[in-house]
Protein backbone atom coordinates (compact mmCIF):
# COMPACT_ATOMS: atom_id res chain seq x y z
CA UNK A 1 0.00 0.00 0.00
CA UNK A 2 1.31 3.51 -0.75
CA UNK A 3 2.75 5.70 1.97
CA UNK A 4 3.86 9.30 2.22
CA UNK A 5 5.14 11.92 4.68
CA UNK A 6 3.58 15.32 5.19
CA UNK A 7 3.27 18.35 7.46
CA UNK A 8 0.15 19.71 9.10
CA UNK A 9 -1.00 23.04 7.69
CA UNK A 10 -4.19 23.90 9.54
CA UNK A 11 -7.70 22.73 10.45
CA UNK A 12 -10.74 23.93 8.55
CA UNK A 13 -14.22 22.89 7.44
CA UNK A 14 -15.49 21.74 4.04
CA UNK A 15 -18.91 20.93 2.65
CA UNK A 16 -19.44 17.51 1.13
CA UNK A 17 -21.80 16.55 -1.71
CA UNK A 18 -24.61 15.83 0.76
CA UNK A 19 -24.46 19.34 2.21
CA UNK A 20 -22.85 18.31 5.49
CA UNK A 21 -20.09 20.32 7.15
CA UNK A 22 -16.99 18.18 7.82
CA UNK A 23 -14.02 19.19 10.00
CA UNK A 24 -10.75 18.46 8.19
CA UNK A 25 -7.01 18.82 8.65
CA UNK A 26 -4.99 19.95 5.65
CA UNK A 27 -1.64 18.23 5.12
CA UNK A 28 1.12 19.27 2.72
CA UNK A 29 2.18 15.75 1.69
CA UNK A 30 5.20 14.75 -0.38
CA UNK A 31 6.49 14.19 -2.87
CA UNK A 32 8.88 11.71 -1.26
CA UNK A 33 11.77 9.73 -2.75
CA UNK A 34 12.63 6.10 -2.02
CA UNK A 35 16.15 6.22 -0.58
CA UNK A 36 16.69 2.58 0.42
CA UNK A 37 15.10 -0.85 0.11
CA UNK A 38 15.67 -3.06 3.15
CA UNK A 39 15.30 -6.83 2.83
CA UNK A 40 15.03 -9.65 5.32
CA UNK A 41 18.12 -11.37 3.93
CA UNK A 42 20.39 -8.33 4.27
CA UNK A 43 18.87 -6.20 7.04
CA UNK A 44 16.75 -8.69 8.97
CA UNK A 45 13.40 -7.15 7.99
CA UNK A 46 11.54 -5.81 4.98
CA UNK A 47 11.03 -2.05 4.77
CA UNK A 48 11.14 0.91 2.42
CA UNK A 49 13.00 4.05 3.51
CA UNK A 50 11.82 7.35 2.05
CA UNK A 51 13.17 10.89 2.21
CA UNK A 52 11.14 14.08 2.66
CA UNK A 53 11.73 17.85 2.93
CA UNK A 54 14.76 18.91 0.87
CA UNK A 55 15.08 22.29 2.64
CA UNK A 56 18.11 21.08 4.59
CA UNK A 57 21.41 22.81 3.73
CA UNK A 58 23.94 20.67 5.62
CA UNK A 59 24.22 16.93 6.23
CA UNK A 60 26.81 14.62 7.72
CA UNK A 61 29.18 12.80 5.37
CA UNK A 62 27.53 9.48 6.18
CA UNK A 63 24.06 10.72 5.22
CA UNK A 64 25.44 12.44 2.11
CA UNK A 65 26.96 9.16 0.97
CA UNK A 66 23.74 7.32 1.76
CA UNK A 67 21.70 9.81 -0.31
CA UNK A 68 24.15 9.99 -3.20
CA UNK A 69 22.50 11.10 -6.48
CA UNK A 70 19.09 11.44 -4.76
CA UNK A 71 19.31 14.90 -3.18
CA UNK A 72 19.32 16.13 0.40
CA UNK A 73 16.46 15.32 2.78
CA UNK A 74 15.78 16.51 6.29
CA UNK A 75 13.57 13.56 7.21
CA UNK A 76 14.17 9.84 6.59
CA UNK A 77 11.46 7.39 7.65
CA UNK A 78 10.81 3.69 7.12
CA UNK A 79 7.56 2.00 6.18
CA UNK A 80 6.77 -1.69 6.05
CA UNK A 81 4.89 -2.58 2.84
CA UNK A 82 1.59 -4.21 3.77
CA UNK A 83 1.08 -5.94 0.41
CA UNK A 84 3.46 -8.65 -0.75
CA UNK A 85 3.12 -7.68 -4.42
CA UNK A 86 4.36 -4.13 -3.79
CA UNK A 87 7.67 -3.38 -5.44
CA UNK A 88 9.73 -0.23 -5.07
CA UNK A 89 13.14 0.77 -6.39
CA UNK A 90 15.68 3.27 -5.11
CA UNK A 91 14.91 6.66 -6.61
CA UNK A 92 11.16 6.12 -7.08
CA UNK A 93 9.03 9.19 -6.38
CA UNK A 94 5.77 8.83 -4.42
CA UNK A 95 3.26 11.69 -4.51
CA UNK A 96 -0.35 12.29 -3.55
CA UNK A 97 -1.33 10.67 -6.88
CA UNK A 98 -1.00 7.32 -5.08
CA UNK A 99 -4.04 8.23 -2.95
CA UNK A 100 -7.62 9.02 -3.89
CA UNK A 101 -10.65 10.61 -2.29
CA UNK A 102 -12.45 8.26 0.10
CA UNK A 103 -9.39 6.14 0.93
CA UNK A 104 -8.94 5.01 4.54
CA UNK A 105 -5.44 5.66 5.87
CA UNK A 106 -3.37 5.16 9.00
CA UNK A 107 -1.70 8.31 10.35
CA UNK A 108 1.05 8.60 12.97
CA UNK A 109 2.30 11.78 14.58
CA UNK A 110 3.73 13.20 17.80
CA UNK A 111 1.21 14.83 20.14
CA UNK A 112 1.59 18.30 21.64
CA UNK A 113 3.95 18.52 24.60
CA UNK A 114 2.29 19.70 27.84
CA UNK A 115 5.38 19.75 30.04
CA UNK A 116 5.29 18.60 33.68
CA UNK A 117 1.66 18.19 34.80
CA UNK A 118 -0.12 17.03 37.93
CA UNK A 119 -2.34 13.99 38.30
CA UNK A 120 -5.59 15.92 37.74
CA UNK A 121 -4.64 17.01 34.24
CA UNK A 122 -2.40 14.06 33.35
CA UNK A 123 -4.59 11.18 34.52
CA UNK A 124 -8.00 12.76 35.20
CA UNK A 125 -7.95 12.44 39.02
CA UNK A 126 -10.84 14.31 40.65
CA UNK A 127 -8.65 15.67 43.48
CA UNK A 128 -9.30 15.80 47.20
CA UNK A 129 -12.59 16.71 48.90
CA UNK A 130 -13.57 20.39 48.89
CA UNK A 131 -14.83 20.34 52.49
CA UNK A 132 -13.75 21.78 55.84
CA UNK A 133 -10.39 20.62 57.10
CA UNK A 134 -8.80 20.61 53.64
CA UNK A 135 -6.12 23.12 52.69
CA UNK A 136 -4.12 23.12 49.46
CA UNK A 137 -5.17 19.52 48.83
CA UNK A 138 -7.70 20.00 46.05
CA UNK A 139 -5.36 18.71 43.31
CA UNK A 140 -3.17 16.41 45.40
CA UNK A 141 -2.64 12.77 44.33
CA UNK A 142 -3.33 11.24 47.74
CA UNK A 143 -1.72 8.04 48.98
CA UNK A 144 0.88 6.52 46.65
CA UNK A 145 1.42 3.09 48.16
CA UNK A 146 0.35 0.40 50.60
CA UNK A 147 1.69 0.45 54.17
CA UNK A 148 3.24 -2.99 54.01
CA UNK A 149 5.13 -2.43 50.75
CA UNK A 150 8.07 -0.10 51.38
CA UNK A 151 8.24 1.22 47.85
CA UNK A 152 6.11 2.75 45.13
CA UNK A 153 4.68 0.07 42.83
CA UNK A 154 5.76 0.33 39.19
CA UNK A 155 3.22 1.95 36.93
CA UNK A 156 1.66 4.08 39.67
CA UNK A 157 -0.15 7.06 38.18
CA UNK A 158 1.68 10.15 39.37
CA UNK A 159 2.62 13.62 38.19
CA UNK A 160 5.14 13.83 35.35
CA UNK A 161 5.82 14.75 31.75
CA UNK A 162 2.70 14.83 29.60
CA UNK A 163 2.34 14.74 25.83
CA UNK A 164 5.04 14.45 23.17
CA UNK A 165 3.95 10.84 22.55
CA UNK A 166 3.59 8.99 19.25
CA UNK A 167 -0.12 8.69 18.41
CA UNK A 168 -1.44 6.44 15.64
CA UNK A 169 -4.94 6.84 14.19
CA UNK A 170 -6.45 4.13 11.99
CA UNK A 171 -9.17 4.14 9.32
CA UNK A 172 -9.11 7.91 8.83
CA UNK A 173 -10.92 9.04 5.69
CA UNK A 174 -9.41 11.25 2.98
CA UNK A 175 -11.97 13.95 2.17
CA UNK A 176 -10.21 15.88 -0.59
CA UNK A 177 -6.96 15.80 -2.58
CA UNK A 178 -5.33 18.70 -4.43
CA UNK A 179 -2.78 17.01 -6.70
CA UNK A 180 -1.41 20.30 -8.06
CA UNK A 181 -0.52 21.68 -4.61
CA UNK A 182 0.22 18.26 -2.99
CA UNK A 183 -2.40 18.82 -0.29
CA UNK A 184 -4.53 16.14 1.37
CA UNK A 185 -7.59 16.94 3.50
CA UNK A 186 -8.05 14.37 6.28
CA UNK A 187 -11.31 14.07 8.20
CA UNK A 188 -11.05 15.20 11.83
CA UNK A 189 -8.08 16.35 13.87
CA UNK A 190 -4.56 14.91 13.95
CA UNK A 191 -1.93 14.79 16.71
CA UNK A 192 0.66 17.55 17.00
CA UNK A 193 1.10 21.25 16.37
CA UNK A 194 1.03 23.05 13.04
CA UNK A 195 3.94 22.10 10.75
CA UNK A 196 4.37 18.84 12.69
CA UNK A 197 5.44 15.88 10.55
CA UNK A 198 2.89 13.08 10.12
CA UNK A 199 3.27 9.66 8.49
CA UNK A 200 0.46 8.50 6.22
CA UNK A 201 -0.04 4.92 4.99
CA UNK A 202 -2.95 3.59 2.99
Keywords:
6-stranded antiparallel barrel, Elongation Factor Tu (Ef-tu), domain 3, 202 residues, 4-stranded antiparallel sheet, mainly beta, single chain
Strand order of the largest sheet: 1-2-11-10-7-12
Q: What structural class is derived from the secondary structure elements?
A: mainly beta
Summarize the amount of helix as a percent range: under 10%
Uncertain stretches: none
Shape by Cα distribution: extended
CATH architecture of the largest domain: Beta Barrel
* CATH superfamily placement of the largest domain: Translation factors
Arithmetic mean of pLDDT:
88
Number of strands: 12
- Classified by CATH, the class of the largest domain is Mainly Beta
Kindly estimate the percentage of residues that lie in beta strands according to DSSP.
35-45%
The end-to-end span amounts to 6 Å
Report on the architecture of this protein:
- By secondary structure, the chain is mainly beta.
- The protein folds into 2 domains: about 1-55 and about 65-110 and about 170-200, Elongation Factor Tu (Ef-tu), domain 3 (Beta Barrel), CATH 2.40.30; about 120-165, no CATH class.
- It contains 3 helices and 12 strands.
- The protein has helices at about 40-45, 60-65, 120-125; strands at about 5-15, 20-30, 30-40, 45-50, 75-80, 95, 105-110, 115, 160-165, 165-180, 185, 195-200.
- It has a 6-stranded antiparallel barrel with strand order 1-2-11-10-7-12. A 4-stranded antiparallel β-sheet has the order 5-4-3-6.
- The longest helix has 6 residues, at about 60-65.
- The model has no long low-confidence stretch (mean pLDDT about 90).
